[in-house]
Specification:
Layout (H helix, E strand, L loop, with lengths): L7 H14 L6 E8 L8 E6 L4 E6 L1 H4 L11 E11 L4 E11 L4 H16 L16 E6 L4 H13 L4 E6 L7 H15 L4 E6 L13 H9 L4 E5 L7 H5 L2 E2 L3 H8 L3 H34 L2 H4 L6 H38 L3 H43 L1 H6 L4 E3 L17 E6 L2 E6 L10
Helix pairs in contact: 4-8, 5-6
Protein name: Exodeoxyribonuclease 7 large subunit
GO cellular component, one term: cytoplasm
Function: Bidirectionally degrades single-stranded DNA into large acid-insoluble oligonucleotides, which are then degraded further into small acid-soluble oligonucleotides.
């Protein structure tokens, strides 16, 4: 009998179809502890376990973004989802649609986690709290434009100081988009730069209604605000993250208006009191200085002012006399020193030696002059002798005795008839001029 063998892929597909067709596995409610937890940027993969078993869990990014708390290793949770298999590995797992902590509400767990995180980051620190201005001129309010909160704040401020301007920055105070709107309006108040105080708030409600004021984006916006913030969210028993981060918490919107504004009559009374105190202080200071002035006028120095500088005049005269004596003494010493230097200089003066050297130089100069004259005379005698000897040897002297110089057409000196031929032009140089001639006949003779 032949058997049909399945592939592993075919078997896993068959098992997956069985899981998908089982109606009891389409919606499963499960309780267990989170295991192998490591938060990923997109989809989440971890395990759920109890004391005896474990199952793999998958939560897609869309479903995970809806939970309000941060899962942690070992946390006990309530989950819903469907059970199926992953074909590639053949492993069955639960695909989660929702998850919340077991024993406490989902939002409360998220509130506790965010509170712990922000407290560790220092957002609740008293050192960061800003004092409220004593005399504000403009107050910004971030709340719903249709609720009773803005009316209660305006009424409270106007009763205390009608000169203070209250400006509404409308924002949604519940719903998914409320947190982002509130944070944006807080930023707008700071960008305006013309407000002294900022109030954020809304009326009472459930934790779901108040949740926008528990969002981290609102907490960070309050912490970054340069304008002091009063938080008035819910009733006195409600405690939101915004209340903890704000500089001041008010239990009601009316109390927020009271905290933000002084009573005008009280301020005017304080001004009158301060003015009276300032007048009294000025009068006291003026009287004190007048008394001191009278005492100074009666002083010995002002009655006889010339005696104030008598001692200084005498001391000046003494100093001038000492200065004169010191100058004369110093001058005498310097004159004596100068005379001594002159005598010393004279004893070592080079003048006698210079005179001797000058006389010696004159003698040398006379000797040099006489030597030069004698040398010139001897040179002239030798030159004349040489000129006469040279004159006797000069070709011109010979030519005057009847000799001449013969040159050919190329101005070469003719020394022999062998250099010539009949008809050749010649130039004959005499002592007193030249003659051009032509060779007619050549008669050579033997020279011994």
């Amino acid at each position: 009998m032949a058997h049909e063998y399945l592939t592993v892929s075919a078997l896993n597909q068959y098992i997956k179809q069985k899981f998908e067709q089982d109606p009891y596995l389409h919606r499963v409610y499960l309780i267990g502890e989170i295991s192998n937890w490591r938060k990923r940027p997109g989809h989440q993969y971890f395990s759920l376990k109890d004391s005896q078993a474990v199952i793999s869990a998958v939560m897609w990014k869309g479903a995970f973004s809806k939970i309000k708390f941060q899962p942690e290793e070992g946390m006990k949770v309530l989950v819903t989802g469907r059970v199926s298999t992953f074909e590639r590995s053949g492993q069955y797992q639960i695909y989660l649609d929702s998850m919340e902590p077991d024993g406490v509400g989902n939002l409360y767990a998220a509130y506790v986690q965010l509170k712990r995180k922000l407290e560790q980051a220092g957002l609740f620190a008293q050192s960061h709290k800003q004092p409220l201005p004593a005399y504000p001129k403009r107050i910004a309010v971030v709340t719903s434009e249709s609720g009773a909160v803005i009316r209660d704040i305006i009424d409270a401020v106007r009763k205390r100081d009608p000169l203070i301007q209250v400006v509404l920055f409308p924002a949604a105070v519940q719903g998914d988009q409320a947190a982002a709107t509130i944070a944006k309006q807080i930023e707008r108040v700071n960008q305006a730069g013309t407000f002294d105080t900022l109030i954020i708030g809304r009326g009472g409600g459930s934790i779901e209604d108040l949740w926008p004021f528990n969002e981290e984006v609102v907490a960070q916006a309050i912490f970054a605000s340069r304008v002091p913030v009063i938080s008035s969210v819910g009733h006195q028993t409600d405690n939101t993250i915004a209340d903890l981060v704000a500089d001041v918490r008010a239990s009601t919107p009316t109390q927020a208006g009271v905290l933000a504004s002084p009573v005008l009559l009280d301020v005017l009374a304080q001004i009158r009191t301060k003015r009276q105190q300032l007048d009294n202080l000025i009068n006291s200071v003026v009287q004190l200085h007048q008394q001191r002035l009278e005492q100074v006028k009666k002083s010995y120095v002002l009655q006889h002012p010339e005696r104030l500088y008598e001692g200084y005049v005498q001391q000046r005269d003494l100093l001038l006399e000492k200065l004169s004596q010191s100058f004369q003494t110093d001058f005498s010493k310097r004159v004596d020193s100068l005379n001594q230097l002159v005598n010393n200089l004279r004893s070592v003066s080079p003048e006698p030696a210079c005179q001797m050297q000058a006389e010696h130089l004159d003698n040398l100069q006379q000797n040099l002059t006489q030597g030069i004259i004698r040398q010139v005379e001897r040179s002239e005698v030798r030159l004349n002798n040489q000129q006469r000897a040279l004159h006797h040897l000069s070709p011109l002297k010979v030519m005057q005795r009847g000799y001449s110089l013969v040159r050919d057409q190329q101005q070469r000196l003719v020394k022999s008839v062998k250099q010539l031929e009949p008809g050749a032009p010649l130039q004959i140089n005499f002592s007193d001029g030249t003659v051009s001639a032509v060779v007619k006949e050549i008669n050579s003779k033997k020279v011994d």
